[in-house]
Description:
The chain is 35% helix and 24% strand. By secondary structure, the protein is an alpha/beta fold. The chain folds into 2 domains: 2-56, no CATH class; 65-261, Vaccinia Virus protein VP39 (Rossmann fold), CATH 3.40.50. The strands form 2 sheets. The chain has an 8-stranded mixed sheet with strand order 3-2-1-4-5-10-8-9, with helices on both faces. Strands 6-7 form a two-stranded antiparallel sheet. The protein is globular and about 80 Å long.
Amino acid sequence: MRFTVKILFLLSQFGFDPFKMLKSLRGVPRYVKTYFHFRSGYSGRLEFLPCLFDWFEEGGSAKDEYFWQDLLVARKIFEANPVRHVDIGSRVDGFVAHVASYREIEVFDIRSITTTIPGVTFKQANLMMPAKEMAGYCDSLSCLHALEHFGLGRYGDPIDPNGFERGFVNMVGLLREDGVFYLSVPVGIERVEFNANRVFDPRTIVNLAIKNSLELSTLTVIHQGGRVEVLEPDELQLTDLASQRYALGIFTFVKLTATQDHLDLGQSV
């Protein structure tokens, strides 16, 4: 089954989507029938532009993990109302647009954005490189479905097997004490699927956060099919999540103050 999914993914990279093709073929008889029905009552200019698979779709997709992460984190930011929110590499046509509809947002991305977007200030930046002059730059930070790509070269970034760690550390550096960091990454059996993405053991992310003075506040998991689950992130739950093939984890971290950072934070999970 997993082999079949990978083959289909590879075909899509070359512009061939077999699922869309099959849906389109199913729609041909209906298209022909409805065309002649419409033509019988219409006398104006009529051209062909068939849309063959939309009949088989819902009115909108509410099962996709991007839909849920963009919606849930945008709502969190609305409720928190931070002074300055910065996003790292999330979807401009999804999450960033959600947030920009109600507040200003700054976006850092390794790729350029040439379109001027109301409410969005853009800066092209490689977050695998430190920016000490921007320490404590914001009190709210997001990076949704992006960290897993760092260092794999997919988006023009330099090849670096430790790129995600460097990126994580540099992002934390942007955040003020008591600031909130919203991070989503694929979680499950830890691996690199080169050069698409990494999948993280969730304990890798939690331990990296602890080393960088972050405390886990909430963990929301989006399973395939759009099932959303809020977990109590204990050892048992994290171990179970690490044994699954794939899910999307949305981690909400809070940056500890210098006083809190010196307290006993317990053992890494």
